[in-house]
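Title: Request for sanity check on DUF3168 domain-containing protein prediction

Description:
We are preparing a figure and want to confirm that the structure record we downloaded matches what your pipeline produces today. Could someone re-run it with the sequence below and paste the raw structure tokens into this thread? We only need the token string, no images.
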Amino acid sequence: MIISDLVYGALQSLDNVYQSTYLKDLDVTYVVFNEVAEYLEFYSDGSVEGTGHDLELHILGKVETDVHHYKDEIKSKLIAAGFDWKGNANEFIQEIEYFHIQLNFYYLEEEEL
């Protein structure tokens, strides 16, 4: 499985979703996502349960309400696609005058039997 395909599929109704691309000075709200880790998950007996994927999504925009709307949409869509939400952090980046929300998710790709 390619995790980016799953993310793109879940977020296909949102505009301006990119993988690993920071677009400075873009005048629209946009999303950048990265898979930050991929690792085996094990059952307590030591057998492989599947592959864990840790994902970060960064929402950036000049309009705070748009950024928060994207956050709510992304959380809803990724949870519906089987991701677990792990939290978020909000900030205003003074240097570029953007609102920024980082969302963290986990996805377990179960081992096929």
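Thanks, this matches our download. Helices lie at 3-10, 64-80.
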